[in-house]
Amino acid sequence: DTLFADLKKERDPDKARELSNQIRMEWQDSGSATVNLLMQWADKAISDNKQPAALDILDQVIALAPNYVEGWNRRATLHYTMGNYRKSMADINRVLSIEPRHFGALAGMAAILGASGKDELAMRAWEQFLDIYPADRKAQEQLGELAEKLAGSKT
Q: N or C: which end of the chain has fewer CB within 10 A?
């Protein structure tokens, strides 16, 4: 909670990135040596371009630790990279039900909504992201582009 409070107040993008990395490190530790090892295997399978194997491993992670937010998030990311947006969105929703401040999941949601032409919903996702992580330049740019696009479409 302290890290999130600091992230919300931090205006320096570099210091904010350090805080966001600390938060990510907290999310990555499942508290289980078995689950942490499975996550390493999933990462290796992903880097070796073995997505089906990675999905199987992540399914095991989720079965073993259903409240481990990063298991769901990693699987959401994998589904996204494989073009399975519906499955990715389902996993993102699960991530956000466990940790509503998961800015990575919100960015994924915004990307999927934007790619699906749901610009107003994508804009809301970016606004939620920036409410948690206001110093993220990329998110600021995405929000600005969507706001301009939507303003242009209303004239």
A: C
**CA 145 to chain centroid:** 20
Residue 111 φ/ψ, nearest 5 degrees: -65, -45
Radius of gyration of the chain (CA): 16
Beta-carbon contacts of residue 78 (< 8 Å; ≥ 6 apart): 42, 46, 51, 54, 55, 58
Q: How much is the pTM?
A: 0.92
**Other CB atoms within 10 Å distance of the CB of residue 75:** 26
Q: pLDDT tens digit string along 54-111?
A: 999 999 999 999 999 999 999 999 999 999 999 999 999 999 999 999 999 999 999 9
d(CA 139, CA 117): 18
Decide: 16 and 8 in contact? Cβ < 8 Å: no
Considering only CA atoms, which of 50, 51, 52, 28 is closest in space to residue 40?
A: 28
Q: Which helix (H) or strand (E) holds 152?
A: helix 137-153
Taking the C-alpha atoms of residue 112 and residue 89, their distance in angstroms, rounded to an integer, is 8
Are 132 and 100 a contacting pair, CB within 8 Å? no
